[in-house]
From TrEMBL:
Membrane-spanning segments: 33-52, 64-83, 95-116, 163-180, 192-209, 236-257, 278-307, 327-353, 374-393, 399-420, 466-488, 500-520, 532-551, 557-577
Domain of life: Eukaryota
Keyword Membrane: yes
Pfam families: AA_permease_2, AA_permease_C
GO annotation terms (biological process): L-arginine import across plasma membrane
Gene3D superfamilies membership: Amino acid/polyamine transporter I
Protein name according to UniProt: Slc7a-2
Membrane topology field: Multi-pass membrane protein
Length: 606
C-alpha cells in the first residue's frame, strides 16, 4: 500500500476551485500593455543584435529571413498553447502550473526545475553580454583592468571575474524586489527605446540596400580567370541550400524564447484570461516583423559573408559610412539587452515562488513581503545565484542547456492541451456547483464517481469516461510516436536508406491516424476566453518541432542536463514528495470523505 501511494504521488494533480483562481497574495497591477512590453522586452534582444547576423553568415545567407519565418511559426504554435493555459489557469508559474494541473506532480517538478535552469543561465549570459557590449563602447577598459588585476586560470570559469555584470544583476534584482509595477515601468521605458532604435535601423537601412547582395554568384571573373569564393556556398538567396536555411531556423527559434515570461505573471495581471493570450500572440507577431526586417536590412546592405557576426548592425553602418548611426545602434543594443535581462530575471523568482508555495521547494522561498507585495526571498535568492554565475562562469558551454529546458516546457504544454481537451474533468470547477454535487452525493448515498458518470450520460456533448480514456491513451501514444519519428529524422545520413524511409512513412501514417482519432473524440466544453485552434493537429506539429530541436542538441549538453536533473530529483524525493501540499490535501480529503461515508452508509469508490 505504501509503495502504491509513493508512485501515485507522481501523478497527483493540482486542483483549483473557481473562487481561488482570481485570489492572490500578489498585487494585481499589470495591464495588457505591461504584459506585451514585458514579452517584447524579453524576446526582442539578442535576436536583433547577434542572432540575425550570426545565422546569415554561418547558416542561411539571405534566406535568414525565411529561417526567422519558420522559427516564428514554431514559436506561435507553442505560444497558442501557452495562451489557452493562461486563459484556463491565470496563476503564477507558467508551464510548471500548466503541467501540474493536467499531467501530474512529478512532470510539473521536472518542468519547473528546468525553467529555473533556463532563467538562471539566461539572466547570467545576458548580464555578461551587456557588460561586454558596454565595454566595447568605452574601448575595452573593463576587460583590460580585470584581466590584469584579477585573472582566473581555472577550467570552466571565465578569464576574469566580471564584477560589472554582477553589479548589473544585483541592481536589477533590487528593482524587482521593490515591486512589480516599478520594474514594469523600467521595462516599458527601455522597451520603447529599444523598439525606437530598431525602427531607426530599419528606416535608415532602407536608404542603403542593394538587391545585388541577394544575388551574389558563387564565382567571379578576374582577368579571364574564374574565381570561386568558398564562403559563398552555392550563392544567391539560398547559398547553403534548404538544409542550411532549416539549420538557421533552429538557431533563430531561440531568438523567440522569452515570450513565456508573460505566462508567469498570471497572479499579477488585472484581467489575465484576456490579457495573457493577446499579449503572447501580439508579442510574437511583432518580434517576427522586427527580426525579418532587420535580417533583410543586414543582408541587403552588404554581402552576407563579410558580416561581423558579433556586432552586425554597427558593422554594416560603419561600412556604409554612417558613423553616428554606429554609436546610436551600439547604445540601442544596451537598451535591448537591458529588457532581455529583465525578461530573463523577472519570471525566475515567480517560478521558485510557485513551486515553494506548493511544497515542492523549501517553504521559506514562498514568503511574500507585506510592504512590497513581492516574493522578496525568492527574488533575492534567484538574483544572487544569477549574479554569481554572471561574474564567475564562462557560459558558452551552458547556453545550450537553456534550449533543453525551454523546448521541454513547450512540448509538455502542447501535450497538456491534448490531455485537457478530451478530459472529463475541467481545471476550473465552480465552487457552488461542486457544493451542490457533494450535497446530492450525501443525500443519494452513491459514490462520487457513479454520480459523475450519470451526469455525463445526460450531457452527450461532453466527454464520457470511455472517450476520456481513449483521448488520454492516444495522446500518450502520439507523443511517443512523434519522439520515435524525430529519432529517425534526426539521423540525416541514414534517412536515405530504403528501410528507414519505410519506417518514417509508416510512423507518419500512424501519427496521422492517432490525430484523427483524437479529433473525433468529444471535447471538454468548459468555456474560456481563448482556445487553441486546430487541435490536435497544431499541438502535434508543435511537439514534432520541439522534440526534433531537442534531439539536435550536442551530447555534452545532455550530460550537463543529467547532472542538473539529478540534483533536482534529490530535492523532490527527499523533500518535495513529502511536503507537497496537494499530497496533504488529498490525504485530508480522503480522511474526511471516509468519515462522511460512515454517516450515510455508503462506500466511496476509488
Amino acid at each position: 500500500m505504501k509503495i502504491k501511494r509513493f508512485f501515485m504521488g507522481f501523478f497527483r494533480k493540482k486542483t483549483y476551485i473557481g473562487v481561488d483562481l482570481n485570489k492572490s497574495l500578489l498585487a494585481r497591477c499589470l495591464t495588457t500593455l505591461d504584459l506585451t512590453a514585458l514579452g517584447i522586452g524579453a524576446t526582442l534582444g539578442a535576436g536583433v543584435y547577434v542572432v540575425a547576423g550570426k545565422v546569415a553568415k554561418e547558416s542561411a545567407g539571405p534566406s535568414v529571413v525565411v529561417s526567422f519565418l519558420i522559427a516564428a511559426i514554431a514559436s506561435i504554435f507553442a505560444g497558442l498553447c501557452y495562451a489557452e493555459f493562461g486563459a484556463r489557469v491565470p496563476r503564477t508559474g507558467s508551464a510548471y502550473i500548466y503541467s501540474y494541473v493536467s499531467v501530474g506532480e512529478l512532470m510539473a517538478f521536472i518542468i519547473g526545475w528546468n525553467l529555473i535552469l533556463e532563467y538562471v543561465i539566461g539572466t547570467a549570459s545576458v548580464a555578461r553580454a551587456w557588460s561586454s557590449n558596454f565595454d566595447e563602447i568605452i574601448g575595452g577598459h573593463i576587460k583590460d583592468f580585470f584581466n590584469s588585476t584579477m585573472p582566473m586560470n581555472l577550467i570552466g570559469l571565465a578569464p576574469y571575474p566580471d564584477l560589472f555584470a554582477f553589479l548589473i544583476t544585483v541592481v536589477l534584482t533590487s528593482i524587482l524586489c521593490i515591486g512589480v509595477k516599478e520594474s514594469s515601468r523600467f521595462n516599458n521605458i527601455f522597451t520603447v527605446l529599444n523598439v525606437s532604435v530598431i525602427l531607426y535601423v530599419i528606416i535608415c537601412g532602407f536608404w542603403n540596400v542593394d538587391i545585388k547582395n541577394w544575388k551574389i554568384p558563387p564565382k567571379t571573373m578576374s582577368n579571364g580567370t574564374i574565381i570561386y569564393n568558398p564562403h559563398i556556398g552555392s550563392g544567391y538567396f539560398f547559398p547553403f541550400g534548404i538544409s542550411g536555411m532549416l539549420s538557421g531556423a533552429g538557431t533563430c527559434f531561440y531568438a523567440f524564447v522569452g515570450f513565456d515570461s508573460i505566462a508567469t505573471t498570471g497572479e499579477e495581471v488585472i484581467n489575465p484570461q484576456k490579457a495573457i493570450p493577446f499579449a503572447i500572440i501580439f508579442c510574437l507577431s511583432l518580434c517576427f516583423v522586427a527580426y525579418a526586417s532587420i535580417s533583410t536590412i543586414i543582408t541587403l546592405m552588404c554581402p552576407f559573408y563579410i558580416i561581423n557576426e558579433d556586432a552586425p548592425l554597427p558593422f554594416i553602418f560603419d561600412k556604409a559610412g554612417w558613423y553616428v548611426s554606429k554609436y546610436i545602434v551600439g547604445i540601442g543594443a544596451l537598451f535591448g539587452l537591458s529588457t532581455s535581462l529583465l525578461g530573463a530575471l523577472f519570471p525566475l523568482p515567480r517560478i521558485i515562488y510557485a513551486m515553494s508555495s506548493d511544497g515542492l521547494l523549501f517553504a521559506f522561498l514562498s514568503k511574500i513581503n507585506k510592504r512590497f507585495k513581492t516574493p522578496l526571498v525568492a527574488t533575492a535568492a534567484a538574483g544572487l545565484l544569477a549574479a554569481t554565475m554572471s561574474a564567475l562562469f564562462d557560459l558558452k558551454s551552458l547556453v545550450d542547456m537553456m534550449s533543453i529546458g525551454t523546448l521541454l516546457a513547450y512540448t509538455l504544454v502542447a501535450f497538456s492541451i491534448l490531455l485537457l481537451r478530451g478530459s472529463v474533468d475541467s481545471i476550473n470547477v465552480d465552487s457552488d456547483s461542486e457544493n451542490e454535487q457533494k450535497s446530492e452525493i450525501i443525500q443519494s448515498g452513491i459514490s462520487f464517481r457513479e454520480y459523475r458518470r450519470n451526469i455525463l450520460k445526460r450531457r452527450s456533448v461532453r466527454p464520457s469516461m470511455i472517450t476520456g480514456f481513449i483521448s488520454k491513451f492516444n495522446s500518450y501514444c502520439l507523443i511517443v510516436s512523434i519522439f520515435i519519428l524525430d529519432l529517425l529524422l534526426v539521423q540525416d545520413t541514414l534517412i536515405k536508406t530504403p528501410a528507414l524511409l519505410f519506417f518514417i512513412i509508416l510512423f507518419i501514417i500512424w501519427i496521422i491516424f492517432l490525430c484523427i482519432t483524437l479529433f473525433i473524440q468529444p471535447e471538454n466544453q468548459k468555456k474560456i476566453s481563448f482556445k487553441v485552434p486546430g487541435v490536435p493537429w497544431l499541438p502535434a506539429i508543435s511537439i514534432l518541432i520541439n522534440l526534433y530541436l531537442m534531439l539536435k542538441l550536442p551530447v555534452d549538453t545532455w550530460y550537463r542536463f543529467g547532472i542538473w536533473m539529478a540534483v533536482g530529483f534529490l530535492i523532490y524525493f527527499f523533500y518535495g514528495l513529502s511536503h507537497s501540499k496537494e499530497g496533504k490535501k488529498n490525504s485530508s480529503s480522503n480522511t474526511q470523505l471516509l468519515f462522511d461515508n460512515s454517516k450515510v452508509g455508503y462506500t466511496l469508490s476509488h
